[in-house]
Amino acid sequence: MTDDTTSSTWLVVGLGNPGPSYAGHRHNIGYMVTDELASRMGSGFRAHKSGRADVVEGRLGAPGSDAPRVVLARPRCYMNDTGGPVKALATFYKVPPAQVVAIHDELDIDFDTMRVKLGGGDNGHNGLKSMRSSLGTGDFHRVRVGIGRPPGRQDVADFVLSNYSTAEKKLLPFVVDTAADAVESLVADGLEKTQQRFNS
């Protein structure tokens, strides 16, 4: 019986950097989406006993429905060390890599666009690279939230560690909301249906 319960738990990780100075950066879209999901679950983040992440545990979906059990997580480390805390949480909650979801910024997708997929490389993304290394596989789900490429000759590192433009900030709540919808769809309805709805 326990196997059934453990395999029905999803670990949803928002990738980002901790602390107020990073909060509004493009690289922190994963944190923003997990904030929205926590609010939908009616709960705030609290320290996990590992001391390496903040978590929210509960069910994600309409109240009273057979909503999936979800652990939302925000690692307490910088992006390039994300894998250790994710591995620790996956082990603690007995979540297989295929039921881990990473929400992250994606340079190769235009702003206000997103893609959901299972597996793949890390495309130079240090958070994904760290997760792949610690989990021993890249076969986890990704909700890839587009930020587009930097304008002109701006350095990529500077671009991802900068705030959204004024025009983007107007659309950002919609982007965050849509990405949260995609996570809900993924854990409730599976990858194929979610891709049909959100990979437009």
From TrEMBL:
Function: Hydrolyzes ribosome-free peptidyl-tRNAs (with 1 or more amino acids incorporated), which drop off the ribosome during protein synthesis, or as a result of ribosome stalling.
Subunit structure: Monomer.
Domain of life from the UniProt record: Bacteria
Site for Stabilizes the basic form of H active site to accept a proton, residues: 105
Gene name for this UniProt entry: pth
Catalytic activity entry: an N-acyl-L-alpha-aminoacyl-tRNA + H2O = an N-acyl-L-amino acid + a tRNA + H(+)
Annotated InterPro entries: Pept_tRNA_hydro, Pept_tRNA_hydro_CS, Pept_tRNA_hydro_sf
Protein name, entry field: Peptidyl-tRNA hydrolase
One Gene Ontology biological process: protein quality control for misfolded or incompletely synthesized proteins
EC number: 3.1.1.29
HAMAP family: Pept_tRNA_hydro_bact (MF_00083)
Family of the protein in this entry: Belongs to the PTH family.
Annotated site residues (Discriminates between blocked and unblocked aminoacyl-tRNA) in this chain: 17
Organism: Nocardioides bruguierae
